[in-house]
Amino acid sequence: MQEQIQGVKSCKAVEDLILNNSKPECNVSICQNYCLEGNCTVNAEGKPTCSCETGYTGERCEVNACVKHCLHNGACCLDERDELVCECTAGYEGERCEVAVTHAGDCAVNSTQQVLKDLRSEVKQVFKEELKRILQLLSDKLDRDEANC
Length: 149
What we know:
The protein is α+β, with helices and mostly antiparallel strands. The chain has three domains: about 1-65, Laminin (Ribbon); about 65-100, Laminin; about 105-149. About 35% of the residues lie in helices and about 15% in strands. The chain contains three helices and eight strands. The strands form four sheets. The chain has a two-stranded antiparallel ribbon. Strands 3-4 form a two-stranded antiparallel sheet. Strands 5-6 form a two-stranded antiparallel sheet. About 5% of the residues are buried.
């Protein structure tokens, strides 16, 4: 079993092959080049399994966890607890650089905020007027109903 894990680095001697009229034969470890970024062991069924290096995942440790983790060209690295951390480019923040940073002086932001403020004010005014109208209609109906009694 240890030979399977470490591999045999030599083939049968050439003289042996000629004398025994056999074909060249090399024993290669089942683990050789199996795990791309990790250590290989052979399980009870004789199949290779990988124990991945920090920051790698996948059956053969072929997936770098940092790839596509940080958004908007943020740089990915591992912290002292081996957790993924993003260093965001200018204009972005958040755990994965997913939040666009806006500044109070930004005209587009101020303009949008002003539009929303104006819209809220207008909706409140329309709602108040409509509520007053409905209340007046109800009051008028009550007055008529009382007059008919």
